[in-house]
Design a protein that fits this description.
The chain has two domains: 51 residues; 228 residues, Orthogonal Bundle (MetI-like fold). Helix content is 76%, strand content 1%. It is flat. It contains twelve helices and two strands.
């Protein structure tokens, strides 16, 4: 009996080991194509770009000219004006995070109320998000240049007669407005999902204890929305720092360089001015800036979420 028992245990062990080996092989087979794509599309170009940042290359000549740290000296010396574009991008991102999250949260709270057209309004707010940013940019460019003038021709308010894309002071707000309008539906959906996941028994307990609707929102609902708030702020942060296509469609960085974002500067230097070395150096510097900002933001959000 002992020998039979040992043989059964050995057989079961072999079956389990074969199953684990098969699962590992399957995992490798399924993940390997994705890893290859990531290396080919991200890591290899990143390393090549880092190498090109030490060269002077117009994208045509066969051999880039090695110039050492000259591109980085031009960036940090202010010769390229790159840090002014970073300032614009950070200002845009700050306003984008603030208004997109506050407005989205207010609308999400309203859309979680039970009324007949709630689902219709959810769809209406989400439609701009599924549209291409370039198309949205061209639509709003027409609105800013011709739409306001045509629809509000006799309106006494000066608001509609502003040069939205021609005045450097107003163009920044125009770009920010369009960016917020286009992405609002995405954050509304995330906040609605978070609000619907809030346990009703907690809300009911607060109501029984005599808490008002405002107290229940700020002291019960809002703390429980910590994960949703973290996700939305991080997503709006990354989207704000990557802003490019909407500026390209609306202003192309103008008037002058009033709406020149960091990504727009990298694009123009590399693919329009044919300064691939300088563009690569700007991309590396901006990568480090974004890395620091995102790390600090995530660290602060995680602390806030835990304290909630």
């Amino acid at each position: 009996m002992t020998d039979v028992r040992e043989m059964q245990l050995t057989s079961a062990w072999e079956v389990m080991m074969k199953k684990q080996t098969k699962e590992r092989v399957e995992n490798v087979c399924f993940t390997l194509p994705a890893l290859i794509c990531i290396f080919v599309m991200f890591y290899i170009p990143f390393v090549m770009g880092a190498g090109y940042s030490f060269t002077q290359w117009n994208g045509i000549s066969q051999q880039p000219k090695f110039i050492g740290l000259d591109n980085y000296k031009a960036i940090f010396g202010g010769g390229s004006g790159f840090f002014s574009t970073i300032g614009f991008t950070i200002g845009y991102t700050a306003l984008f995070i603030l208004f997109s999250n506050v407005i989205a949260l207010i609308l999400a709270v309203a859309l979680t109320k039970k009324f007949h057209l709630a689902n219709v309004f959810r769809g209406v707010f989400f439609i701009p998000y599924i549209m291409s940013m370039t198309i949205v940019g061209f639509i709003w460019k027409f609105i800013f240049t011709k739409g306001f003038e045509t629809m509000f021709e006799h309106c006494p308010l000066p608001f509609f007669n502003w040069s939205w894309l021609g005045d450097p002071r107003v163009a920044f707000w125009a770009v920010t407005l369009v960016g917020i309008w286009q992405s609002l539906g995405f954050y509304i959906v995330l906040y609605i999902a978070g609000l619907e996941a809030v346990p009703q028994d907690v809300e009911e307990a607060a109501r029984v204890d005599g808490a008002t609707s405002t107290q229940r929102f700020f002291r019960v609902t809002l703390p429980l929305l910590g994960p949703s708030i973290t996700t939305c702020i991080f997503m709006s942060l990354t989207n704000g720092l990557k802003v490019f296509d909407i500026i390209l469609a609306l202003t192309k960085g103008g008037p002058g360089q009033a709406t020149y974002s960091a990504t727009m500067s990298i694009y123009m230097d590399a693919f329009t001015n044919n300064q691939y070395g300088l563009g690569s150096a700007e991309a590396i510097v901006y990568f480090l800036v974004v890395l620091v900002i995102t790390k600090l933001t995530l660290k602060g959000l995680n602390r806030t979420e835990v304290s909630l």
